[in-house]
């Protein structure tokens, strides 16, 4: 259960403009933001960062690859909350559910091409503690991605580094939709809801 109380809908009314994009994208207010809202300037800052990182331009990698990278980073960090969220987000962004489920074996699965493997391999290295990203990883990335895209990839990994630490530390309760997606598509690879169950905040 969440270790800090999640604010209720009526307590979030003052922050509706900040939270609305997430609610529109997901169909619900993420519980991570219900906790962030205890410190409104953090909620505002995080959402501004998220908008900048996930914004699509003509130079961007695809939204589905962004979320697959986020999922790979969350796997490396061990955050079950973010694995469930990024798995579902990858599917909503256009990745086949079968491909999301196969992320655990992206190196050998024929569902992934070499460019995707390079990005996912890098995500796992960069999200590890201690950081395992190397010069060789960047040589590999440059075979497929521009500097703009590499910066974008690192930005996704870094933002989810914050979210992985946030949600894993707070044991943020998972919402129904990501639980359903992860149970159906990620459970076969060892995913479980773990400590991210619905309940009152620990006292």
What would your notes on this structure say?
The protein has ten helices and no strands. α3 (40-54) runs antiparallel to α9 and α7 (114-127) crosses α9. It has a domain at 59-189: Up-down Bundle (AhpD-like). With 203 residues, it is an all-alpha fold. The model has no long low-confidence stretch (mean pLDDT 95).
Summarize this entry quickly.
The protein has 203 residues and is mainly α. It has helices at 16-26, 31-36, 40-54, 63-77, 80-92, 97-101, 114-127, 135-141, 147-170, 176-185.
Strand-and-helix sequence, N→C? Answer: HHHHHHHHHH
- Highest CATH level, the class of the domain at 59-189: Mainly Alpha
Shape: globular
Examine the secondary-structure arrangement and name the CATH architecture of the domain at 59-189: Up-down Bundle
Radius of gyration over all CA atoms, rounded:
17 Å
Low-confidence stretches: none
Question: Averaging pLDDT over every residue, what do you get?
Answer: 95
| β-strand amount | under 5%
Give the number of helices. Answer: 10
Q: What's the CATH topology label of the domain at 59-189? A: AhpD-like
Structural class: mainly alpha
Number of E strands: 0
| CATH superfamily grouping of the domain at 59-189 | AhpD-like
Q: Terminal Cα separation, in Å?
A: 11 Å
Helix content: 55-70%
Q: Could you describe the largest sheet, including whether it forms a barrel?
A: none
Structural descriptors:
AhpD-like, mainly alpha, single chain, 59% helix, globular, 203 residues
């Amino acid at each position: 259960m969440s270790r800090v109380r999640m604010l209720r809908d009526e307590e979030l009314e003052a922050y509706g403009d900040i939270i609305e994009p997430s609610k529109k994208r997901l169909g619900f207010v993420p519980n991570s933001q219900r906790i962030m809202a205890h410190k409104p300037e953090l909620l505002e800052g995080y959402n501004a960062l998220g908008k900048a990182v996930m914004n699509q331009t003509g130079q961007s990698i695809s939204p589905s690859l962004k979320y697959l990278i986020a999922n790979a980073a969350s796997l490396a960090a061990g955050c079950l909350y973010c694995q469930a969220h990024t798995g579902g987000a990858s599917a909503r962004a256009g990745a086949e559910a079968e491909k999301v489920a196969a992320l655990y074996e992206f190196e050998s699965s024929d569902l992934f091409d070499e460019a995707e493997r390079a990005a996912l391999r890098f995500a796992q290295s960069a999200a590890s503690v201690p950081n395992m990203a190397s010069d060789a990883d960047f040589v590999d990335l440059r075979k497929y991605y521009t500097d703009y895209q590499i910066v974008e990839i690192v930005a996704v990994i870094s933002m989810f580094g914050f979210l992985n630490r946030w949600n894993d530390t707070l044991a943020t309760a998972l919402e129904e939709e990501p639980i359903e997606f992860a149970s159906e598509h990620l459970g076969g690879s060892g995913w479980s809801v773990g400590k991210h169950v619905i309940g009152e905040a620990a006292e």
